[in-house]
Amino acid sequence: MQSRAMRMALSAAALIIFGAAATFLIYSERQISRRLDANRAFDQLAREVAGELSAMRAAQEAYVAAGQGVDFWIPEVAALMAKTSGSIEELRTAAVNAEASRALNEAAASIADFGDADKRARDYLRNGEQLMAADVVFTAGGETSSAAAQRVEAARLVEQQAFDSSEAQQRRLQAYGLAAAGGCALLVIIVLAPRPRDSAVPREAR
User: For residue 196, is it within any domain?
Assistant: First the structure.
């Protein structure tokens, strides 16, 4: 076991194990870093969408507010709807979790419902039915925009949880890899450690 060839083989094996462990750690850290960047971008965009939804709802409510110009706010709502729909689609494409994707599909459907309510409100306004328009704006318009905001927030939380779970799993694998490499190193040290030779001790004559 203490032959030169055996020592060299064990040393080479230890180097290979350490090299594999180091490679795995580097690859794992890069994966975590990429996921972290993607998660931060998703989180930031989701918060921006929440702001867009709030602005969209406020712009629609301005239809029936005293002293506001409907001609200004109608195209504003249309522009915000288009922007928000595009942002939700961007979120849906970036989502890595199926539950988050479903929530974003539902958010997109809520935006479509908001658009239907907006059309009804505009029709009432054109016909001079201010009270009916206000009813649509503060019921259907408010409910659909709120539903979209809730689903976007749900998607954001699910994506955050998915990232946290993925990172925890990677950290566990890193710990297992380090423990395995450390165990192999300890075994090699024990095997290669010089052992004292037995020496014959002469017995004293009585």
Answer: no
Residue 186 burial (C-beta neighbours within 10 Å; 0-12, 13-18, 19+): exposed
- Boundaries of domain holding 117: 10-184
Segment 160-187, tens digit of pLDDT: 999 888 888 888 887 887 787 777 777 7
Tally of structural domains, the chain: 1
Taking the C-alpha atoms of residue 97 and residue 108, their distance in angstroms, rounded to an integer, is 17
C-alpha to C-alpha distance for 1 and 10, rounded to whole angstroms: 10
Q: Find the CATH number of the domain harbouring 98.
A: 1.20.120
The amino acid at residue 106 is E
Residue 202 included in any domain: no
Task: Answer yes or no: is 203 within a domain.
Answer: no
Evaluate whether residue 189 is within a structural domain: no
Model confidence band, residue 75 (pLDDT cutoffs 50, 70, 90): very high
- What band does 66 get if pLDDT is binned at 50, 70 and 90? confident
Instruction: Give the pLDDT confidence score for residue 197 in this predicted structure.
Output: 59
* Predicted TM-score of the model (pTM): 0.76
Q: At what angle do helices 98-126 and 4-61 cross, to 10 degrees?
A: 10
Task: Dig out the tokens for 203 from the structure.
Answer: 């017995």
Helix (H) or strand (E) holding 66: none
> Residue 205: is its pLDDT beyond 50?
no
